Amino acid sequence: MKAHSISKKKYINETISGYAFMMPFVISISVFIIGPLIYAFIISFKDFSYLNPSSSHWVGFKNYIGLLNDQTFKRALLNTTIYSLFVVPTQLFIALILALVVDSDIKGKTFFRVAYYIPTVTSTVAVSVIFLYLFKADGLVNTILSKVGIHGQAWFNNVNFALPSIMMMAIWSSVGNYMVIFLAGLQDIPMELYEAAEVDGANKFQRFIKITFPLLRHVVFFNLVVSLIGTFQIFDQAYVVSGGSGGPLDATMTVVLDIYKTGFKDFNMGYASAMAFVLFLIILLLTLLQRLLFRDEMY
């Protein structure tokens, strides 16, 4: 009986200690994440401005309905979608190729792993400034093109080339991150499978199709979800390149940049919150769709 009492007391003490250790995290996530999310959801149904919060009033679904006729938001959503459709598959394809290269027996593969990964840890603002200089009218890119008889563009000031230029910048700066994840997946594949396939006469391409890619499908799913979420949240590059305007003629306007302008420049925080939750819903639906398509690779 005494032993049971001691055991129960020890259990209670451990439980209290466990909750005590959890409290800083629970409090911080409640104050800085959960609380603001709930508050943002509430003001998305209001005409709200931080300049005069006392004058805010309930407007119901007016903010959400207004998005249906908001041409800037539609253009931002279109730009973001086009950006995602091009960047996601391109950067994942390049990342997989690079992972296969640095996982092979080439000399200096440690150097190449570091070299491919360095752009990932570089500030996106710094990368954007570098590309602004590279792609300006008298920049390095146009100088090289002129040597081969091609007339260059003012890339970021051209409606047709501004968004593709940001796409190239995003791919270059983020592909290393997905390469590392693919590399981890490749190194988790047992070598015995490759050895057995080689004994059976399978060439490198056949080994990739029959062994490597099927066993990497769960890694592909993870990278696809993370990449898609990241591309729909693009802000830094578009802001720096356009000076925060989304120009020229909204060619680089993205959903998050539109949210930023609406909330912090126009001070229409209720409308901006509605835009943010629409973006959240889009990302959630796309993630669930990918989960459905890759459900066999989840387990």
Automatic annotation (TrEMBL):
<keyword id="KW-0472">Membrane</keyword>
<dbReference type="InterPro" id="IPR035906">
    <property type="entry name" value="MetI-like_sf"/>
</dbReference>
<keyword id="KW-0813">Transport</keyword>
<protein>
    <submittedName>
        <fullName>ABC-type transporter, integral membrane subunit</fullName>
    </submittedName>
</protein>
<dbReference type="GO" id="GO:0005886">
    <property type="term" value="C:plasma membrane"/>
</dbReference>
<feature type="transmembrane region" description="Helical">
    <location>
        <begin position="114"/>
        <end position="135"/>
    </location>
</feature>
<feature type="domain" description="ABC transmembrane type-1">
    <location>
        <begin position="77"/>
        <end position="290"/>
    </location>
</feature>
<comment type="similarity">
    <text>Belongs to the binding-protein-dependent transport system permease family.</text>
</comment>
<feature type="transmembrane region" description="Helical">
    <location>
        <begin position="269"/>
        <end position="289"/>
    </location>
</feature>
<feature type="transmembrane region" description="Helical">
    <location>
        <begin position="215"/>
        <end position="235"/>
    </location>
</feature>
<keyword id="KW-0812">Transmembrane</keyword>
<feature type="transmembrane region" description="Helical">
    <location>
        <begin position="82"/>
        <end position="102"/>
    </location>
</feature>
<keyword id="KW-1003">Cell membrane</keyword>
<dbReference type="InterPro" id="IPR051393">
    <property type="entry name" value="ABC_transporter_permease"/>
</dbReference>
<dbReference type="GO" id="GO:0055085">
    <property type="term" value="P:transmembrane transport"/>
</dbReference>
<dbReference type="Pfam" id="PF00528">
    <property type="entry name" value="BPD_transp_1"/>
</dbReference>
<dbReference type="InterPro" id="IPR000515">
    <property type="entry name" value="MetI-like"/>
</dbReference>
<feature type="transmembrane region" description="Helical">
    <location>
        <begin position="21"/>
        <end position="45"/>
    </location>
</feature>
<feature type="transmembrane region" description="Helical">
    <location>
        <begin position="161"/>
        <end position="184"/>
    </location>
</feature>
<keyword id="KW-1133">Transmembrane helix</keyword>
